[in-house]
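User: tokens in, sequence out, please.
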């Protein structure tokens, strides 16, 4: 495959100020007529080149005249037409078969609907067009379809006209006044019902909001609607950004390659991020709906009004928009818990990516397939970079800087460099060194050591940073990072206040005076920089912070570090004092000043994967055994506490209040420990919770707890769950996912069985992720020493690649982490990668991920 490089960017040869599209829709045979006004950009004589993917032109016209076969050509799928003048009108006609489109890119059919997905390069599967984000065009779209089958016809912008036609067909016209890149084009046709409400913007304009779903799903749309209104109000209040069209529509579809898509005025969503009710959605699902609705809405400014010049700038819109949605969700709920969750995701997904063969900078230098770069690095690390800038600037200067960015680049296709410059000018700061964060891959490690001098009553903090090499980047330069720090008096339990340390050198010393006794260091509070901090704080100091730190993230972190030390010690066969861990857990649960959601986060043992990340070589079996043993011990020694917490957090009726959500979270932690304790009634308590729950949070977590061990209750609960939800795809996904993620000795065999289950299908990405995505993230099961887990995932990748390469490629990274495992496992993993690579006709998507991973 061809490698695309950032440094090769050239402005487009031809611009397309306007495009008229006419769709005659039909699942088997859709006719697309496009009329483009094209203008030559600069003095050159290069032909017009319109990208195409699996398209054959039925007709090509220039300025109204049909061209003969010799007057155009097809090169690598693209339609190439030499044109004489500075401006022309080009018309093409193509035919599509949406029902045959299993890639879910371009125009496709999903559950009786016709819908589109264009980002990144799907528009070229719909019509011939210069498919790059720096071509901004005004769209006018006419849709025509069978009225009975497709009564609703939607596209971007505002609806203008509609009418009926003979033969039961009808049509509608949509005009989008805002010039946009083609990746934001969308259409939907189908039999949809609408949850319709209105929002009045800050300047007093009424916007008609519509959430379109299958009729039966209407009752499950109210949370998404509330989230949409809250996001609109939040963006006005926090960023001064107002919505700009008269309508804002969202459509939920069942078959979707990722979460959702921010098409201008017509967001299309994976239904799992729209539909929610107490019967089927967990609290995490509710939060997911709120976060993704907000994310896509916020793209209207960070992405649509200001878009990306090229795909190397993807984090310009994604990192910034993730940062915005994270802060929105924090404002809607708990800042402390949201930060903990976001850091957990960053560490689990981005730190792993950054330490493996697929590591890449936030602004990559090259790609084979851009779809492979919708990564945790672009999204989550990108968001962390914005967070650091916002921290360095403070709220007022950050707001001045984003105002400048939006004003300066409104209507443009911008770059990360444009963004940084706006931050510098609007925020009055020099980001010269900070820019390295965009160029350099890899997670920096910061060593912090504190020495106390009782004579001068001072402490010296030495910070040393280094970033390990990543593919193609052997040498790393020091980064500029803001580290929030505080020193605590170990007797009073109070700190002398927080300071922001700017680490810019490889090694830096900071001196603090007025400490008669050595203080306890709290550093990277709030996870102010996305780095790994290594301190050699004792278990006693960590326990102190776990009890006294006034930064909730730091407090959580101290708990995690305490537990990690105990677990890594166990794996290494060392005698580590675990009483500090047990005491810290007990004290945290009993602390009356802490809210339940925070307590639940803080007392949770780190995941097996996270423990593995702390070790030079991952031993999945030993890690599993160590975590299991510690969990059992905590369960046993505090058994009365878990019984008490489990009983007292039982709710009287369902509510989505923060307190109720927190209580459910804590209740589930208590259940996990209670069952882990080995108490004989563990499975019955879990089964009762499963059976009596009036909400999915408690039901699914009880099921997940039961799924870990052999018991009659396990089998009964799985059967009940299946029979109750077999007709609801999103909930049935949970049935697959819970089993694939279970810490059960037979998981690998069970996953094989489930892959043959009549309800399993490769055609639906949610189902694939529920089974194979969850399984590949289940460290103990996936890395079964037989290698069977690797084989199952590789089989899935090979089969899925023929249907849906994008989703297939997303399953590759877990196999690519072979360097972190013992020789036998590494050989088995590489063997599977090689087997995948030897398949004939492998997609560009999978080829890129596998070839980078196998070396
Ligand atoms: N921008 C889309 C992601 C498109 C992914 C294409 N492979 C959703 C989002 O980030 O909001
Ligand atoms: Zn996004």
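Assistant: Sequence out:
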């Amino acid at each position: 495959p061809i490698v695309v490089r950032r440094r090769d960017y050239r402005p487009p040869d031809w611009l397309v100020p306007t495009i008229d599209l006419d769709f005659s829709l039909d699942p088997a045979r859709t006719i697309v007529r496009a009329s483009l006004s094209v203008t030559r950009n600069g003095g050159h004589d290069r032909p017009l080149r319109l990208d195409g993917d699996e398209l054959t032109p039925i007709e090509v016209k220039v300025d109204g005249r049909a061209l003969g076969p010799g007057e155009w050509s097809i090169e690598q799928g693209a339609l190439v037409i030499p044109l004489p003048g500075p401006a022309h009108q080009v018309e093409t006609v193509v035919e599509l078969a949406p029902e045959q489109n299993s890639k879910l890119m371009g125009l496709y059919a999903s559950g009786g609907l016709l819908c589109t997905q264009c980002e990144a390069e799907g528009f070229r599967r719909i019509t011939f067009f210069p498919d790059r984000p720096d071509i901004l065009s005004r769209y006018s779209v006419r849709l025509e379809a069978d009225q009975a089958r497709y009564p609703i016809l939607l596209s971007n912008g505002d609806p203008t006209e509609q009418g009926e036609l003979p033969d039961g067909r009808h049509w509608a016209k949509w005009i989008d006044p805002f010039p946009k890149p083609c990746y934001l084009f969308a259409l939907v046709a189908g039999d949809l019902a609408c949850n319709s409400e209105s929002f009045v913007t800050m300047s007093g304009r009424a916007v008609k909001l519509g959430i379109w779903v299958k009729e039966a799903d209407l009752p499950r749309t109210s949370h998404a609607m509330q989230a949409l209104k809250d996001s609109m109000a939040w963006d006005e209040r926090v960023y001064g950004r107002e919505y700009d069209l008269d309508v804002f529509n969202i459509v939920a579809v069942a078959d979707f390659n990722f979460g959702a898509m921010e098409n201008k005025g017509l967001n299309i969503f994976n239904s799992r991020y729209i539909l929610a009710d107490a019967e089927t959605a967990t609290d995490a699902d509710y939060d997911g709906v709120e976060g993704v609705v907000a994310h896509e809405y916020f793209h209207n400014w960070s992405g649509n009004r200001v878009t990306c010049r090229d795909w190397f700038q993807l984090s310009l819109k994604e990192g910034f928009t993730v940062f915005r949605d994270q802060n929105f969700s924090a404002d809607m709920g708990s800042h402390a818990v949201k930060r903990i969750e976001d850091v957990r995701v960053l560490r689990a997904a981005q730190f792993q990516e950054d330490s493996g063969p697929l590591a890449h900078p936030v602004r990559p230098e090259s790609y084979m397939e851009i779809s492979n770069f919708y990564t945790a690095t672009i999204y989550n690390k990108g968001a962390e970079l914005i967070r650091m800038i916002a921290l360095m600037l403070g709220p007022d200067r950050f707001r001045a800087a984003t105002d400048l960015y939006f004003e300066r680049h409104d209507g443009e296709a911008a770059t990360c460099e444009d963004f940084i410059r706006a931050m510098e000018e609007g925020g009055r700061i020099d980001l010269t060194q900070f820019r390295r964060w965009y160029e350099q891959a890899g997670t920096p490690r910061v060593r912090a050591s504190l020495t106390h001098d009782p004579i001068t009553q001072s402490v010296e903090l030495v910070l040393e940073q280094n970033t390990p090499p990543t593919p193609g980047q052997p040498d790393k330069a020091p980064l500029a990072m803001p580290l929030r720090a505080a020193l605590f008096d170990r007797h009073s339990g109070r700190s002398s206040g927080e300071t922001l340390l700017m680490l810019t050198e490889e090694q830096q010393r900071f001196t603090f005076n007025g400490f008669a006794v050595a203080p306890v260091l709290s550093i990277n509070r709030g996870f102010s920089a996305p780095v790994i901090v290594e301190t050699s704080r004792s278990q006693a100091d960590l326990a102190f912070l776990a009890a006294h730190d006034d930064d909730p993230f730091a407090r959580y972190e101290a708990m995690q570090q305490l537990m990690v030390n105990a677990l890594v010690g166990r794996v290494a066969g060392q005698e580590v004092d675990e009483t500090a861990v047990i005491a810290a857990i007990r004290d945290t649960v009993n602390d009356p000043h802490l809210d339940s959601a925070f307590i639940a986060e803080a007392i949770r043992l780190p995941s097996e994967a996270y423990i593995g990340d702390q070790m030079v070589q991952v031993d999945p079996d030993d890690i599993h055994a160590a975590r299991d043993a510690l969990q059992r011990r905590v369960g046993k020694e505090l058994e009365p506490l878990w019984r008490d917490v489990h009983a007292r957090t039982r709710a009287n009726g369902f509510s989505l209040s923060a307190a109720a959500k927190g209580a459910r979270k804590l209740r589930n932690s208590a259940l996990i420990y209670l069952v882990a304790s080995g108490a004989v009634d563990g499975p019955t308590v879990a089964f009762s919770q499963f059976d009596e729950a009036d909400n999915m949070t408690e039901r699914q977590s009880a099921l997940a707890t039961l799924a870990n061990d052999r018991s009659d209750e396990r089998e009964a609960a799985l059967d009940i769950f299946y029979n109750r939800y077999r007709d609801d795809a999103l909930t049935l996904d949970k049935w697959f996912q819970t089993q694939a993620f279970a810490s059960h000795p037979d998981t690998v065999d069970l996953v094989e069985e489930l892959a043959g289950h009549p309800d399993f299908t490769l055609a639906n990405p949610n189902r694939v992720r529920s089974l194979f995505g969850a399984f590949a993230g289940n460290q103990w099961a996936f890395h079964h020493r037989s290698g069977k887990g690797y084989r199952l995932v590789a089989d899935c990748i090979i089969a899925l690649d023929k249907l849906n390469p994008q989703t297939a490629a997303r399953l590759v990274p877990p196999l690519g982490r072979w360097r972190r495992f013992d020789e036998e496992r590494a050989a088995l993993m590489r063997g599977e990668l090689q087997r995948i690579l030897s398949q004939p006709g492998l997609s560009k998507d999978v080829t890129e991920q596998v070839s980078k991973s196998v070396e």
